[in-house]
Design goal:
Blueprint: E1 10-17, H1 21-28, H2 31-37, E2 43-50, E3 57-64, E4 79-90, E5 94-102, E6 112-121, E7 124-132, H3 140-161
Antiparallel strand pairs: 1-7, 2-3, 3-4, 4-5, 5-6, 6-7
């Protein structure tokens, strides 16, 4: 029997954002806000369904912008469709999501857990995202670049609202 535990990977990123944990938490539980900041650079997002409660689900379509994108979509030629489930919602502190990519490619199969931790600091909020069980089809350097881009988007989105 093959030991699949060696294939499990953890990627993470962190950034201090000049906003309160409450302000940042609200960006996770509002569908329009989530669609505006979650897609990394080079992608746009559309929320198809959204139920922001523990046990609630959402479906998001991420579309690659421009024909010069090197990365092919996981769900179609230019899209990544993800199903998300809110496992834990601790207001102003933590959001835990279970993410599944819609793809026929087994390299993107499986469930990835994303834990977002919000830690209040005098100068803002330390936002850390930890992704566990990252599908092997997602290159680590691409994923970490995407996570940092998403944090940059969240910072821009929230700091404009302050």
């Amino acid at each position: 029997m093959e030991n699949t535990s060696s294939k499990k990977r953890i990627d993470s990123a962190s950034r201090v954002i000049m906003a309160t944990p409450r302000t940042i938490y609200q960006a996770f539980i509002n569908s329009e806000a989530l669609a505006s900041w979650l897609p990394p650079e080079g992608m746009s997002g559309q929320i198809d369904t959204f139920d922001a409660r523990e046990g609630g689900n959402y479906r998001m379509t991420l579309t690659y912008i421009g024909a010069d994108q090197i990365s092919a979509g996981k769900s179609s030629e230019n899209t990544d469709v993800v199903q998300g489930k809110f496992l834990t919602l601790v207001p102003d502190e933590r959001v835990v999501q279970l993410i599944e990519f819609e793809s026929e490619d087994p390299a993107y199969a499986g469930l990835m857990t994303m834990t977002w931790t919000l830690t209040s600091l005098p100068e803002g909020t330390d936002v850390t995202v930890v992704c566990e069980n990252v599908p092997e089809g997602i290159r680590q350097e691409d994923h970490e670049e995407g996570l940092n881009s998403t944090l940059e988007n969240l910072a821009s989105f929230k700091e404009r609202q302050q």
